[in-house]
Amino acid sequence: METRKLFYEDSALKSFTAKVTQVREGWVALDATAFYPEGGGQPYDLGTLGETAVLEVQEEDGVIWHKTEKPLTVGETVRGEIDWQRRFDLMQQHTAEHIISGVANRLYGCHNVGFHMGADVITLDFDKVLPEDAMSKIEQLANEAVFANIPVRCYVPAEDELPGIPYRTKKALPYPVRLVEIPGYDTCACCGVHTKTTGALGLIKLLSCVKFHQGVRIEMVAGWRAYRMFCQVFDQNRQVSQAFSAKILETGEAARRMNAALTAEKFRSTSLERQLMEAIAQSFAGQEKAICFTKELPARPLAEQLAAKGAKLAAVFRGSDGEGYSFALISKTENVADLGKALTQTFSGKGGGRDGFFQGSITATEAQIWGFW
């Protein structure tokens, strides 16, 4: 006995009463249900049957099976309660996907070849690379559909009527074919559950568009997800505006000014660092073995400066007694590979190098390192 699909009769049905018709280990079937089974890219519903939680819903040969936390008995009448917040969210995302896919197909001739409802965002895969301005055009038209509050029609046309209806489908389908129609925007073969009007979506927001295989992948949110994301983004932008002392709609320009200032400061700092290393290297001029300790200057560039000033062996140790030291050894005459290995073995460190250069890190004090030499 096939299950009567109440979710198709009324997608806004939140509760219902039905009789248990079959039971198998961990699963029950009913004579009718508002629980949507997994399919069409849409996850299954959750909720309760009587006093037990519904953990999963699947369809098999027209029978809809509910995985329940506790067993039920054949012949028992139960009240079903849908987790409506979750269901409504899924309906919002699914209906929005239809609008986006329909608009993209109409504008650019691309086809939806993949659709995934994630916990945070929805991904749509299309088989063509879209132009740079496609996101804004698709999003605007999609939201025009939302604000127009268009009725969403879900129906199975007569078999002789179906060939005359142009609709999107990923593959040829045997009759009967259930169509979801949003007049002016999309007609698509789909077994999912949708909102009754486009206005129930509230808002559609496209988040990103990246190249994927031979086409693109778009991330989007709609409905309550879009609202919650807007609230999070607004709060983050409010914090940025306070940090930059900028108006909330001028944070982008404030960030660009800050980035320019940081770039200039980095350039100045690099220049000063180079001058300081040159001065340190000059103080070691004429020494065959130049051993230097520093807390902040980079080890390798300073060692290169020391070697450039004539040191046959340049050794720079950066760090502190408490945290240990990273080091760089440079020499054109001495075997720094053997010297570096001896350092790391003596002070339980690690490192490597070649062609007159060795770098690594060790755990030791400055006094211990001086003692090594």
Word description of this protein:
The chain is of the alpha+beta class. The chain has three domains: about 5-80, Beta Barrel (Elongation Factor Tu (Ef-tu), domain 3); about 90-230, Threonyl-tRNA Synthetase, Chain A, domain 2 (2-Layer Sandwich), CATH 3.30.980.10; about 275-370, Diaminopimelate Epimerase, Chain A, domain 1. The protein is about 35% helix and about 30% strand. The chain has eight helices and 20 strands. Strands 2-3-7-6-5-8 form a six-stranded antiparallel β-barrel. Helix 2 packs across helix 3 (about 135-145), helix 4 crosses helix 5 (about 250-285) and helix 5 runs parallel beside helix 6 (about 300-310). The radius of gyration is 34 Å and the shape is elongated.
Summarize the structure.
With 373 residues, the chain is α+β, with helices and mostly antiparallel strands.
What secondary-structure arrangement, pairings included, does this model have?
Elements: E1 4-5, H1 6-9, E2 15-24, E3 27-30, E4 32-33, E5 47-49, E6 52-60, E7 63-68, E8 77-82, H2 84-108, E9 112-117, E10 122-126, H3 134-147, E11 153-155, E12 179-182, E13 186-189, E14 204-212, E15 215-222, H4 223-244, H5 251-283, E16 289-294, H6 299-308, E17 313-320, E18 324-330, H7 336-346, E19 350-354, E20 357-362, H8 366-372
Parallel strand pairs: 1-4, 16-17
Antiparallel strand pairs: 2-3, 2-8, 3-7, 5-6, 5-8, 6-7, 9-10, 10-15, 11-12, 12-13, 14-15, 17-18, 18-20, 19-20
